[in-house]
Structures are given as C-alpha cells and as structure tokens.
Amino acid sequence: MDFVAGCIGGAAGVLVGHPFDTVKVRLQVQSVDKPLYRGTFHCFQSIIRQETLFGLYKGIGSPMMGLTFINAIVFGVQGNTMRLLGHDTPMNQFLAGAAAGAIQCVICCPMELAKTRLQLQGTGEKKSSRKLYKNSLDCLVRIYNREGLRGVNRGMVTTLIRETPGFGVYFLAYDVLTRGLGCEPDDRFMIPKLLFAGGMAGIASWLSTYPVDVIKSRLQADGVGGVYRYSSIADCVRQSVRREGYMVFTRGLTSTLLRAFPVNAATFATVALILMYSRGEGQGPKDCELAPTGHQAQLQQQAHPSSL
Questions:
Q1: Dist CA 195 CA 284 (whole Å)
Q2: For the chain, what are the domain ranges?
Q3: For residues 86 and 30, what is the distance between their CA atoms, to the nearest angstrom?
Q4: pLDDT at res. 233
Q5: Which family does this protein fall into (predicted)?
Q6: Looking at the predicted structure, is the pLDDT value of residue 300 above 70?
Q7: Using the 8-state DSSP alphabet, how is residue 212 labeled?
C-alpha cells in the first residue's frame, strides 16, 4: 500500500507541477536573440493565450508513464541502501538518496527527453500544423528510429550529474527538517510539518543542481527542427555562457521554485491521506502520520523519528 500511495501521490505532484515545468523548459531553451517570453508570468500568460490551458500540459504523458517505474526504483533503492548502511543518519540519507537518484536515471532520461520535445512542439500555436509527435511513446520511437539508443538517451550524463546529488540533497534536507521540526507520531501538526519539510527539501534539491538542469534541457531540445547547435556538454556550456552570460544558469528558476513546493506538498498530502483511509481509523496512524515499517520502526525506537 505504501508503494501504491507513493505512485498516486507522485501523480498528484505531476498534475500540480507540470504547468510550471513547461514554463521552465520554454524559458531555458528560448533563443536569446529572439526571445518569445519576457519572464515567468509572461510565459504563463502567452501559453494560455496562444495555446489554451492545455498548452501548459504538453508532454504530461511522459512523466505519468514513467512515474510507476521511477517511484519503484527510487523508494526501493533508497530503502534497501538504508538497510545496508544500517544507521539512520543524515549522511546515510544523502548516500541512499544519491544511489536512488543515479539508478533511476535509466527511466528518467528518456522520459524527460520525450517530455521536453512535446513541450516545445507547436510553441505559440493553438493547433499545431507541424505536429511531429503524437504522444510520448511515438516521440521516443521516432527518435530511436532516427538516432538509435544514443538519441533516446540524449542528456544521460547531465541527468546523472543532476539526479545523483539532487536526490541526495533532497533526502538529506527532508531528514534534517523533520528531525528539527520534531515530527513526533502524536503531534497534531504532523501533516503541516511533513508538507513544509517536503516542500523545502524540494527547493533545496533544485537549487543545488539547477545549472546542470539548464544544460540538460538545452541538450535534449537540441535537434528540434533538424538543427543541432551543441557538440558536447562543454560546448553547450561554452556557447550558453558566451552568448548569455552566467545568468543563463538561472533561466526558468522562478517557475521551478514555484513548482517545487506545491509538487512536494501535493505528493505528501496524497500519500498521507491514502495511508490514513486505507488503514482505517483503528489501525491508521494518528493525525495522518506516515507510519514506519520494518527496519524503520526499529531505528525509530533508538533515535529521533525520521521521515522516510
């Protein structure tokens, strides 16, 4: 049930956060010579006006499709790594999160490639007359037929560089915050504290790796329209800095941070509610507490309770 709740919670997070992600990608890859958007809110307004509300949800099929596998990998690897490490400490949370982040890149990279390509398709048009991809799966199949496995895994190195420390920081920040806030089982403010910790951990995670995400988006968007601009990661960094300065690494950051908190809040709230109602009033954790199981329960008898 924990896995099912995590998947549904993740889906809720995608629904809440995908419009912000679309804005982030548009801002990250737009031309500096002929920019379409002046900033985050102008981008929101332009997409809704030109492409309707559904324009903000372009490419959502890809993260929804990969959600189950990513949740299975992340929480499975993180839990098993914590058991192998043996002690629930902040550093071990970082190491377990980093391991989970690295392994899930196998699913995450192709998923985000399809998402990025679909988010850029038909920019500024209500009905795209040049609709190259029907959906996420069709996008990946077409890329594979044209470029092979290398094309499907475009941006894998930058995804790995982003996800490994990113997930480590996320689990570390969440652990430190839940310990500091005192998320005790009998605390009636358990859920608000968990939501706050999750949201802030998400923000910390994005801030720690955001420049890498900008380069990843540019590499994955490269080749749209048949024009390739970057020969490597270093070339992408060099060209981006030369043309736009070091502030290029903050493109889309506002929408990303606006997205980070509600996405994590939606995810944790959904997980907590599902677990509460599925376990029933008599068996469920007090005040929607995410009850620990197995090894976590033993650890919490020895130390201050931690979230995951």
A1: 19
A2: 1-123+132-154+222-279
A3: 47
A4: 96
A5: Belongs to the mitochondrial carrier (TC 2.A.29) family.
A6: no
A7: H
Model pLDDT for residues 9-44, shown as the tens digit of each residue:
777 778 888 999 999 999 998 888 888 898 999 999
Cβ atoms of 82 and 96 closer than 8 Å? yes
Residue 139 · residue 58 · CB < 8 Å: no
Q: Helices 61-85 and 295-302: crossing angle, nearest 10°? A: 60
What are the tokens at 108?
A: 């995450």
Residue 252 tokens read as 């889309």
Predicted model pTM: 0.78
Burial of 33 (0-12, 13-18, 19+ CB in 10 A): exposed
Q: Chain-wide mean pLDDT for the chain?
A: 82
CATH architecture of 1-123+132-154+222-279: Alpha/alpha barrel (1.50)
In terms of Cα–Cα distance, which of 107, 17, 37 is closest to 65? 107
CA 66 to CA 85: how far, in whole Å? 28
Whether residue 244 is predicted with pLDDT greater than 50 in this model: the reply is yes
